Structures are given as C-alpha cells and as structure tokens.
Amino acid sequence: MRAQFVLSEIGVGLRRNLTMTFAVIISVALSLALTGGALLANKQVDSMKGYWYDKVQVTIYMCNKGDAATTPSCAKGAVTDDQKAEIKADLQKLPIVDKVYFETAEEAYKHYQEQFKNSPLVSSVTPDQMQENYRVKLKDPTKFAVVASAFQGRPGIQSVEDQRKVLQNLFSLLNGMTNVAWVVLAFMLTVAMLLIVNTVRVSAFSRRRETGIMRLVGASSFYIQMPFIMEAAFAGLVGAGLACGMLLGGRYFMIDAGLKLQEKIPLVSFLGWDSVVKVLPLVLLIGVVMPALAAFVALRRYLKV
After folding, report:
1. Which of 62, 67, 162, 277 could form a disulfide with 79 if both were Cys (CB 3.0 to 4.6 A apart)?
2. Residue 130 half-sphere exposure, CB side, CA atoms within 13 Å?
3. Cα–Cα distance measured from residue 42 to residue 27, given in angstroms and rounded to the nearest whole number
C-alpha cells in the first residue's frame, strides 16, 4: 500500500510540473553527455600519448655544404664519412638507444616532397639542400637530453631534434580543449542542480496541504520526502538515458559513419565501443544520485520535517 501511494505521488508530481521536469531532463542529459565526453576525451588523449610517445624518434641532422655559414659546428663543411661512422658507433654504444636508422639526402628529399606536395615552396628545394640524418629510436623517449648532450655541437652535426616537442604542442591543445569541456561541464551541472532544487521546491509548495496532513497523522520525514526524491531521481534517470544515447550516437556518427574520422585520420587509433560502454554505468549512476541528493538537501531546508 505504501509503495502504491509513493508511486501515485510520483506520477502526480511529474504531471503537475511537466515543463520543469522536462527542463531538468534536458539539462541533466546535456551535462551528463558532457561528463561522459570529457572522460572519453581524457582516455583518448592518454591513449594517443602512449601510442605516439612509443614511436617518436630523436633526429640527428648532419651538416651539408650550405650549413657552413650558419652553424658553428658545420664551419668545416659537410659531414665526412668518418664522422658519420663515429656518430653511428657512439649512438649504438648508448644503452638507451633501441634502433638507429640512416636517411640519405635523397631519401630526405623524397620524404619532403611527399609531406609538402601541395606547398608552392617544394619546387624551390633541391636534393643537395637536404640533410643526411640519423633517426634514433629510444627505449625511453623521455631520455632525449642524454642524446642531445652527447651529440649537440659535435663536428659534422647540424642539430639534434626531439620529435616529442611537436607532439607535446598537439597534446597541449587537446588537453586545453578537454579542460574547457570540464569548465562547461561544471557550469551545466550547476544549472541542472539549481533546476532540480527549484523543481522540487515548487512541487513541495504545490502539495503543501497533503504534506501538512501527513505530518499531522504521524508520517515520518523519510516517508514524506520519498515521493519528491523519487521524482527527481526518475527525471535524472531519463536524462542519463538520453545522455547515454548521445554518447553512443556521437561515437557512431563521428567515428564509424557520418564524419568517418577513423577513415579520414587513420594515424589516430580512436577509442572503441568498449571504452564508451564502460562510461555508461557511471553516467547512469550520476544521473540518479545527483538529482536525488539535490532533492534531499532542498527538502530538508524547505519542508523542515
């Protein structure tokens, strides 16, 4: 009988405040969709870091004839065969070095043409302007400073560059975008909480006569509060369900169909369906607990029962 009464009160409350309940559902759905999106974005960035940092290399560029006037270590002219052999031998002695690849000037020119084939400047570069280089794969990519200190400024070496710098700029941009998403998320959650509190208070005010009678007949505080809390939890659950649908739909239309980012950006390994599905229970849990808690706090101050 009590369960039937609570359920009937929930239905009455939802019908009386249909517009505000709809607003709560939409705001909860948007905020929780942002929550799930931000969590997935963090996972995506971490996944990309693990993938690309494992593949980055240190590049040691050799001197060519044109570097003599601009680089002190190249003042004696282009790198000699003896210097190249010595550099390679010293690289292979380092315990942090995994593999060493040599790229000729002709190979570097070919790669340059492939990378910048749409640039008008590609025709102004000739093979003799390209630099021979050693591409060094480290066992630990964070140990770039060891290679740099050992080889920077040596005769025959024009520069030592760490490819992680390029990736760090990319990841800094992605992290910045994720942080913006968290800020927007916090704002949306605050709006959702305020809407929930306001909706519960309006619902409690519209049923103040019923709650007054229930106090007089000795109903417990929990029994009086339960219909309001369940209304908020139900609206939050519906909103969380919509948020789950948006996350699943977003993954499908952005990665698999529609934008087809996986096909357009094959170098990026996007998160699979399992990562999205793992986030959904958390979204549903927050969708139920957050409105219920907000309703409980609002009722304690408003009903004073």
Report:
1. 62
2. 18
3. 23
